[in-house]
């Protein structure tokens, strides 16, 4: 019987670089995880594409998805809803593939309750001033939203001890290497075989 995939959850304060790190990991040709695209009621930022960056929904649509139990987890974050479509995650894990979620901490806590054997990684900035610098430099939020996100960020960072691993995002490439190494180690711990050997044996 095929092993189920691993659920990998990446959290961290707004602006720490989760999206940047995730995009870098998914641009690597040997990445074997599947990214779960979230739903949100936030307005698209310039360049964001529906169905690629998020599934953009109205509040009414989102609340209907909640009622229909279509979300694995959801949270209200600085005035908008964010949530993970449950069917995609369950079907992909069942098919044996790893699924990667990039979500904030309230959602990660809900996922931990449903998937206690998931792999939970918290990304931290080198400092709070660098965090603020990154979110300001990104230039996507007005000042009052940045201030709200910074207030939430401090509360989120206090939650990092609930995670299996804390990874610093000092440099994007280093953070990606650390995350990839953690995932490989986790597979080895569970199966006692490195994933590349499993692939090699399946191919024969
Ligand atoms: N290691 C790094 N060093 C310097 N800048 C970085 C680093 N990682 C990301 N950044 C920059 O920080 C900004 C925020 O990154 P990003 O949007 O990926 O953060 P995020 O955690 O996904 O934010 P949010 O939770 O608000 O969506 C971007 O402008 C990005 O280019
Ligand atoms: N609980 C969830 N949080 C999510 C999900 N998708 C994204 N997020 C997190 O929300 C904040 C804000 O995101 P932004 O794109 O508006 O900057 C950030 O921490 C994301 O990681 C989700 O499905 N569930």
Automatic annotation (TrEMBL):
EC number(s) recorded for this UniProt protein: 2.7.4.8
Reactions it catalyzes: GMP + ATP = GDP + ADP
GO cellular component entries: cytosol
SUPFAM superfamilies tied to this protein: P-loop containing nucleoside triphosphate hydrolases (SSF52540)
Keywords: ATP-binding, Cytoplasm, Kinase, Nucleotide-binding, Transferase
Cell compartment(s), UniProt: Cytoplasm
Family note: Belongs to the guanylate kinase family.
Protein name in UniProt: Guanylate kinase
Gene: gmk
């Amino acid at each position: 019987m095929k092993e189920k995939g691993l659920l990998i959850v990446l959290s961290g304060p707004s602006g720490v670089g989760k999206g940047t790190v995730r995009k870098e990991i998914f641009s690597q040709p040997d990445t074997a995880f599947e990214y779960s695209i979230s739903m949100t009621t936030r307005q698209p930022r310039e360049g964001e594409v529906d169905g690629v960056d998020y599934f953009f929904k109205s509040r009414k649509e989102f609340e209907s998805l909640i009622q229909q139990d279509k979300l694995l987890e959801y949270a209200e974050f600085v005035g908008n809803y964010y949530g993970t479509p449950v069917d995609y995650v369950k079907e992909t894990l069942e098919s044996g593939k790893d699924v990667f979620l990039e979500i904030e901490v309230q959602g990660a806590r809900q996922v931990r309750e449903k998937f206690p054997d998931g792999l939970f990684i918290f990304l931290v900035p080198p400092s709070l001033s660098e965090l603020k610098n990154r979110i300001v430099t990104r230039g996507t939020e007005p000042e009052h939203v940045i201030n709200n996100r910074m207030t939430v960020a401090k509360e989120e960072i206090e939650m990092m001890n609930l995670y299996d691993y804390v990874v610093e995002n000092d440099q994007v490439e280093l953070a990606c290497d650390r995350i990839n190494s953690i995932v490989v180690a986790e597979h080895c711990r569970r199966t006692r075989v490195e994933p590349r050997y499993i692939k090699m044996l399946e191919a024969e």
